[in-house]
Design a protein that fits this description.
single chain; 4 domains; Retrovirus_Pol_polyprotein; Reverse transcriptase
Amino acid sequence: MRSVRAYVAEVDQSDWDEHAERLMFALNTSFDAARLDTPFYLVHGWDTQGTISAMLGPKPSTVQEQTALEWRRKMQRDYSYALACAEDLQKKVKRAGSAAQTRKWKEFSDRVKAGFEAGDYVWLYIPKVRTGLSRKLAHLWQGSFRIDEIHDDFRVRLKIPGTGYRVYPWVHISRLKPRALFSKRPTSEIQVSEDDDFDAALLLDDSWEPDTTQEEYEVEEILDLRWIKRTRTSKRYREYLIKVLRREPVSKLCKLGMITLGTKFEDNFSPKNPHV
């Protein structure tokens, strides 16, 4: 404890962790008169090395390090060699990064020159997402917008009025992507003979009759009302529990699925389930 207190500078001893590593190194490398060796060599089987020596590895040398001055000179040479290697590696990384940045900028410039023009329709990248919505499932490309003006080959002005969006009209060209322009659909009709309709034999007898009244029913009474919220759009919708005026036989209603639909809504809105 005396040796530890000697290295601790502050009164409250809050800087002991800064000296603990050095003290452990000093204790492990101290010569033990009883064992005639250092504790580190007895545990690991080799002598300790500094950080620089461990990184650089052994080098052939004829200098016998018998004094502290020779050891200090060797450490200075190794330190200078390590600084030179680090500086060389930094220069190589900087040159590689500069070349990659130049290549990316050239590709971007070529894409800009051959890209957008005034009057084109584009999609705008808006990374903001409403609170409560998942960013993974959100639509980040909004639009489409028409380019009104191009300035300095990298900044464009979009035509915002009338689109329903409230965004700043001047945007960087990296946030845009062109809208896919599909060719017009063919208007010519293909004449197919009746003999080529292979699926006609598999249809039911009444499949050719038009369904004009099966999708419209008369509401007799509104039994209940509830509000639901869609997680994706965060919009609220109303759902009604209605009673349909049954003017048709029950068997036909079962075929249309009305009995099943009514039972489902009655289960959800049942007084036994007040939480719905």
